[in-house]
Amino acid sequence: MKINITHNNTIAKTIIFPLLDNEYLAENLSKIAKHVGLNAEHLQQDFKAGLKESLILYGNQEGLEKVYLLGLGKSPKQIDFVKAFRSFFYNSKKKLPKNVGLKLKMAGLEAYTEFIVNGICLADYEVGVYKTEQKKVADFFSEEAVLEIQVTESTIETVEKSAKIGHEMAETQARIMALVDAPANFKYPQKIAEFAIESGEKYGFDVKVFDEKQCLELGLHALLAVGRGSTENPARFIVMEYNASQENVKKIGLVGKGVTFDTGGISIKGSASMSYMKSDMGGAGAVLGTLEMVAKLKLPVHLIGVIPCTENCVDGNALKPSEVISSYSGKTIEVIDTDAEGRLVLADGLSYIKKNFEPDVIIDLATLTGNCISALGYVAAGLLSNNDILANKLLEISQLTGEKLWRLPLWDDYKDMMNSDIADIKNLSSAPLAGAITAAKFLEVFIDGHTNWAHLDIAGLAFGDSEFAKMKSGTAYGVNLLTTWLREIN
Q1: Is 90 inside any structural domain?
Q2: What is the pLDDT of residues 138-162, one digit of tens each?
Q3: How many structural domains is the chain composed of?
């Protein structure tokens, strides 16, 4: 699909009018009624412009076939534009022709072009890529299709830039959603490494992949311990680096949990939802997507992404409860539960990025605890941070992008819950409560005193229910959140 930005009237025979529920709604509906030859009063009664509300009209004028009205509600946020347009175009794409006009000019929506285009382009993503009977690409998303966006003449240059960002964001988000949705036999540590290498070569950032022998030489003992039960798909440690090569830019470190499938190990999970554990690399997906977007946008930042990547499987060699293992930091860990493996691989990732890069900010993301879902449901991810300025900024941006965060305490009151009698720390508290917090207290040990760190527990958000799939599917949670934050920090 090609996107054309114009201030002229579109030649398309199918037109979409997005409308806000504000003081101009009646006036705008009257203009549309006149345009299509309908009674304005009737149209005002039938359409109230609620969020995602839509109405189809058939044109009476020569050359005009269909008019769609799309409601955006009273005071939509960025994410509301994404949701409304993705929903409309996903549900309508089989009906839409190759040439469609979108009038932003009437309602003065040019400033929201990035989010509108992002939503439209996300509507192209389909989960069922492994079905033998592939669905035909909708005419609207074919290579020959054209979306004409009508704006005021003075905004054309700005709108073109915004539309490009929205499209590129959707492209990367769709790639990450597809990666998270991929089943375990199509997605294992080496495949994640190949994805990173391909992305780096295409968009311009460096990628280093350490195999299991090199991981041992580096001293990534916690990562290797988790991967011991996976005999066919050994661990990989992926380090990505984008450097804008400009002076006085912030150095940011991201660490993403990359467990491509999690059986729980010897502390095996129940079978009811184990199939969803293909999504346990959602944190890695967020880091991959953010590196890709930052490189695409050429942001003025020095960004390092680290992904400790492994499977957590059941085997005679698998890590056993009660074992004491070492880590990259040199600290010893008593393994209470092998299903608390994410924090083990993150421990090595955090220690590595702190020691070798000394970033100004460190953020880790992980589908880490069911306890966080118990606390926040599927609405918000948990945010735990030792820096109020960082935490408050992430909270603010999360409300805009719709990737909501809610801050949980990181008080030292919880620290003793991770004490071990025989090692420096244990990987799971014996108390069946505050699990998301005690997991963060565990990770805090491995940042080696860094004072600008945030941990995002995205267990309930990286993979979830939506109108776009019959089962749970990938969301690319964190890609837009982190990219938006990085666009604002310099």
Answers
A1: yes
A2: 889 999 999 999 999 999 999 999 9
A3: 2
